[in-house]
Amino acid sequence: MEQVITTKNEESINIDADGILYKELNVILRDLNSKGIKRVKLNNVYGQRYIGTDLSQPMEIEISGTPGNDLGAFMNGQKITVYGNAQDCCGNTMNNGEIVIHGHAGDILGMSARGGKIFVRDDAGYRAGIHMKEYLDKKPILVIGGSTQDFVGEYMGGGVLIMLGLNLGKEIKHKAKFIGTGMHGGVIFLRGQVEQYQLGKEVGVAELSEKDHQVVYDNVNEFASYFKLDPDKILEQRFIKLFPRWLRPYGRLYAY
Amino acid sequence: MKTYLPPKFLVERDMDRCIKCKVCINQCSFDTHYYDEEDDQVKSIIGNCVGCHRCMTFCPTQAITIKKNQHQYRDNVNWRPEIIEDIIKQAETGGVLLTGMGDDKEQTIYWDHLVLNASQVTNPSIDPLREPMELATYLGSKPDKIDLDEEWNLKTILPPQVKLDVPIMFAGMSYGAVGLQVQESLARAATEAGTLWDTGEGGLHPSLYKYGNNTTVQVASGRFGVHPEYLNVARVVEIKIGQGAKPGIGGHLPGEKVSAEVSSTRMIPMGTDALSPAPQHDIYSIEDLAQLVHALKEAVNYKKPVSVKIAAVHNSAAIAVGMVKAGADIIVLDGLRGATGAAPKIIRDNVGIPIEMALASVDSRLRKEGIRNHASLVVSGGIRNSGDVVKAIALGADAVYIGTAALIALGCRVCQQCHTGKCAWGICTTNPLLNKRINPDIGAKRLTNLLHAWSTELKEILGGMGVNALESLRGNRLQLRGVGLTDSELEILGVRMAGD
User: Fold this and answer.
1) Residue of B44, B215, B432, B492 with fewest CB within 10 Å of its CB?
2) Chain A, nearest residue to B420 by Cα
């Protein structure tokens, strides 16, 4: 392990991840985490999976390169910043913590997340925010700077999903279809426009309430602070609120 | 709309015996009995009776008899009463027919066509009452070879293993499908008997964490209640891809069963439907399965076996090879007769293959591929007694899961009303008043008794064969013979005809 640690001071450690298998990399991270190291910088990350899984202590992980699938899967309270793109299943069943991606994310971003926050500067792939949940104060938050592919917010059962469409030009026309299909909880705030046919049949559209505006304001400000953007400019545009029309979308499907 | 459905059961009340104590009224959760003040009599609305025998069992004077309504249709092998009545139900509701428990149709039960061997003359049988008999089973991936040092100590680091004192585990039944008292009964019995129970996919209530060492936790498509503590408290982590009662489809725990406690364990708001998607959306291929298997292995730091459960379907053997190659330490096959808390009836009764066939073909295929030792093989779906257990093990299983049998031990009469959430026995419901009918002290005792009885029988059967360890029977199909089976059935089962 010593040979991969490039620089070191009391709290922060730099690691050259080039050529290290994910399993070994996670052994190193677990070890540093148990020793109370608070900050780790991983350089030259090339597709290693499961970074941030199974760490028990708070830790900040900075990644340069391209982390592999399942980044922050089952993560529990750590903070990951990626200078690059994330792949599929980022934040899979995440319990708590924060992931900030200076780039794109792949498919099923934040799948079944139970808590924590994910900020993606650019776009995300298919089924972002699928089956996110919430319970009392545990409420996952997913902010996507750009737009997504189809089935965003599918089966959503809780949490907050914000899509800003910052790279969609002046008219901000989102292209995703089946938005929120099967949604039965949580809320999606969309900056820009969608047509009715792009929405799942379980989804209702509404204006933002004062409380909603506050949620958008807080999260857009946090988003903007990570990517050095002007929050006021983002907030100038109109947002719409997408919500589940029923808590029980399939309650009338069956004969008993 | 007036229903055209005839009542299924008749309730006969012997008025000479009835003392009007109203126990039946209180016990029935389907509102069958009522007290008629004018006549000063307890009466019944027979159309409501589901035949669960709760009232009959608790009637202090045995005044009640439940009988099948013997109304006759004109004989017709095609348009049988059940088929006619299903159509009536759908014409009246427009809904997908929902049901509970496992497939109740007449597909061949192969266990009943397999018979076991015993020692006669050429080798002695063993009397298990006086001689040692080993039922211990280790679940987990076994290495291809082991290295020993000069002092004969094991040098090879073994993948995580789980020791079962008896090769019978309790199948996954989620909190939400069944009540917490049922899960506590299962957990305590598993702990007592040295085996495992399985959470199903509804998370693990904190009050049951203390049984973690005997707990398999499930990670299914809904990911309910899956968090680091849940994974770490368990002995085995099981990825559930499919279920024998409903292969290929997800589940909807109806909002009315999502009580405050269920919502806290599943971590979803109270009263919402708990939707389990049909696929796991992070698994669209064997490679993706490998990814989740390893994500979970990372999450538990390689300390626990990861199991993968599928429903037995046509190409199970090829899928099983993929599962083993994906890194599963245990693979679970759930057969056509596997039960459920709720499934569309048309799927329960028509999709999937009998577990005996799936087991035989998977075991054979894994052997052919030379990877049988890389994973333990567990089967479930219709294991009814210790005879079925022995036959499963002789066909190649390492262990079995029992679900329905365990619930019957707790009082279930297989009335197939699980999906209504009204179970009068307090098993398949989250209604707190009904749940109280299961006393975990008594429940655990009944389940422990069942496992004890089956273990004793297993030993008797093994002894009769002249075998003193279950390990010697595992995959030994020569101890089986088929009766009333065709050549191709015998070929797939890898079993010879009786007399051959």
Assistant:
1) B432
2) A256
Do A142 and A197 lie in a common domain?
Answer: yes
Query: Quick one: B191 and B287 in the same domain?
Result: yes
Which residues on A lie below 8 Å from B420 (Cβ)?
Answer: 256
- Contact: A250, B275; criterion CB under 8 Å: yes
Q: Does the distance separating the beta carbons of A95 and B228 come in below 8 Å?
A: yes
**What pLDDT sits at residue A9?**
65
In a domain, B108, yes or no: no
User: Are residues A249 and B273, on separate chains, in Cβ contact within 8 Å?
Assistant: yes
Cβ contact B268–A253 (<8 Å): no
Mutate to test the interface with A, among B205, B275, B288, B292 (most CBs of A within 10 A): B275
Q: Give the total residue count for chain B.
A: 500
What residue type is B442 in one-letter code? I
Using a CB–CB cutoff of 8 Å, tell me whether B164 touches chain A. Answer: no
Of B95, B128, B148, the position where a domain reaches its end is: B95
Pairing state between β A239-244 and A185-191: antiparallel
Tokens of B343: 């499934």
Tell whether A49 and A105 lie within a shared domain: no
CA distance B225 to B209: 13
Token couple for B249: 């489809």
Structural domain contains residue A140: yes
Least CB-CB distance to A185: which of B90, B92, B269?
A: B269
Query: Smallest Cβ distance to B267: which of A127, A135, A247?
Result: A135
Please state whether A83 falls in left (phi above 0), alpha (psi between -120 and 50) or beta: beta
Confirm whether A80 is domain-assigned: yes
Whether residue A255 and residue B97 make contact (CB cut-off 8 A), yes or no, is yes
Phi-psi map region of B124: left, alpha, beta (phi>0 left; psi -120 to 50 alpha): beta
Separation between Cα atoms, residue A190 and residue A186, nearest integer Å = 13
Q: Which of A27, A56, A74 to mutate to test the interface with B (most CBs of B within 10 A)?
A: A74
Residue A78 counted as domain residue: yes
pLDDT < 50 positions in chain A: none
Which residues in chain B have Cβ-Cβ distances shorter than 8 Å to A184? 272-273, 275
In a domain, A254, yes or no: no
* CATH number, position B162: 3.20.20.70
Shortest distance between the Cα of B479 and any Cα of chain A, in A, equals 44
Nearest Cβ partner for B268 among A127, A133, A252: A133
Cβ–Cβ under 8 Å, residues B111 and B357: no
Q: Name the pTM for this structure.
A: 0.95
Closest partner CB to A185 (pick from B223, B268, B281):
B268
Are B272 and B372 in a shared domain?
yes
Distance (Å) from the alpha carbon of B263 to chain A's nearest alpha carbon: 8
Interatomic CA distance for residues B393 and B79, integer angstroms: 39
Q: Say whether the ipTM exceeds 0.90.
A: yes
Whole-number pLDDT of residue B334: 98
Beta carbons of B259 and B430 less than 8 angstroms apart: yes
Has residue B122 been placed in a domain? no
Please give the tally of structural domains in chain A. Answer: 2
Looking at this protein, which amino acid is placed at residue A60?
Answer: E
Domain that holds residue A44: 1-61
The answer to whether residues A6 and A108 belong to one domain is no
In tens, the pLDDT along A162-196 reads: 999 999 999 999 999 999 999 999 999 999 999 99
State the residue range of the domain holding B14: 9-95
Pairing of strands B33-36, B41-44: antiparallel
The whole-number mean pLDDT for each consecutive block of 10 residues of chain B, a chain of 500 residues, reads 92 96 97 97 95 97 94 92 95 93 96 97 92 96 96 95 98 95 98 98 95 97 93 97 94 83 87 87 94 97 97 97 98 97 94 98 98 98 97 98 98 95 95 96 98 97 96 96 98 97
What CATH number should be reported for the domain holding residue B23? Answer: 3.30.70.20
> Alpha-carbon distance B42 to B45, whole Å?
10
Report the pLDDT value the prediction gives residue B24, as an integer from 0 to 100: 97
Tokens of B395: 């066909």
